[in-house]
Design goal:
Layout (H helix, E strand, L loop, with lengths): L7 E4 L1 H7 L7 H13 L4 E6 L12 H8 L10 E5 L3 H9 L4 E7 L2 H8 L3 H17 L3 E7 L12 H13 L4 E6 L6 H11 L8 E5 L6 H10 L4 E4 L19 H11 L7 H15 L6 H6 L1
Parallel strand pairs: 1-2, 1-8, 2-3, 3-4, 4-5, 5-6, 6-7
Length: 301
């Protein structure tokens, strides 16, 4: 079996993870977490989101987070710190804060799009065109997300053709890469394989990443299938931060520690130090007063 020699880990804990935790943290704690993750060798970290604090209070203070991170050191020796920017207003805030990369997100489910961002898929994509254009003009790279690629909490099944169409439109507007999100974690190795075989007919693997939730314990299995199909970028969240808001009581994001342990076993390079990751995960779990969601971290303890 052929696997990529190197996998890029996109650490989403400080953004997607903390955004889905019930409590908000102060800027100092967020910056401390991000610095611990950077010191653990992670080269790409989603550090915040420029959305209204009214709607996502957990992401308040992102401007200050990025300002502090910009003082970390020379750009060549620092990770890429990225932010979610859903609209032009958010993008302008991100630019002012010195953000290096931004992300936009669409869905493969009409119902999810309406309930999540109050517009259709087509309308959401239209909104992102000026965001991508402005970011690219400012020399900022743009990453795209597609939610609900393997299932939707409202529509159940999601058409692979629609996933492909949304991903292609994100690429066409200038996203250098599209992350495929199994938002509710219902995917299996079989459905993951079917989706990737469909997408890879027209989209090269170098343009795709995967973001697998672990609601039903399938995330690592689905990522393994993705690696076998040449996908070499994987999103994960330290300590499994962030729940699954559409499946009460279920786990959400895959823990970065668990991903790294599997990659180590496969002999795939990723640049992260597992023990430092475990320490970073335990630090933030202690701050949140929650159980560590990483099976590997619990085993090491």
């Amino acid at each position: 079996m052929n696997y990529p020699e190197t996998v890029k880990i996109v650490e989403v804990g400080p953004r997607d993870g903390l955004q889905n935790e019930w409590q908000s943290l102060d800027v100092g704690t967020k910056v401390r977490l991000i610095n611990l993750l950077a010191d653990a060798g992670l080269g790409y970290i989603e550090a915040g989101s420029f959305v209204s604090p009214k709607w996502v209070p957990q992401m308040a203070g992102s401007d200050e987070v990025f300002t502090q991170l910009s003082n970390r050191g020379q750009p060549n020796s620092s990770p890429t710190f990225a932010a979610l920017t859903p609209n032009i207003k958010g993008l302008e805030r991100a630019i002012a804060a010195g953000v290096q990369e931004v992300a936009v997100f669409a869905a493969a489910s009409e119902s999810f799009s309406q309930k999540n961002i109050n517009c259709s898929i087509a309308e959401s994509l239209d909104r992102f065109v000026p965001v991508a254009e402005r970011a690219l003009a400012a020399g900022i790279a743009v990453r795209g997300y597609v939610s609900c690629v393997l299932g939707c909490p409202y529509e159940t099944a999601v058409d692979n053709v629609r996933v492909r169409d949304v991903a292609q439109q994100l690429l066409d507007m200038g996203c250098y890469e599209v992350s495929l999100g199994d938002t509710i974690g219902v995917g299996t190795p079989a459905s993951t394989q079917a989706l990737l075989e469909h997408l890879l007919k027209s989209i090269p693997p170098q343009k795709l990443a995967v973001h697998m939730h672990d609601t039903y314990g399938q995330a690592l299995a689905n990522i393994l299938v993705s690696l076998q199909h040449g996908i070499a970028v994987v999103d994960s969240s330290v300590a499994g931060l962030g729940g699954c808001p559409y499946a009460k009581g279920a786990s959400g994001n895959l823990a970065t520690e668990d991903l790294v342990y599997m990659l180590n076993g496969l002999g795939i390079d990723h640049g992260a130090d597992l023990r430092k990751l475990i320490a970073a995960g335990q630090f933030i779990c202690d701050k949140l007063g929650r159980k560590n969601g990483s099976k590997v971290a619990l085993a090491f303890q």
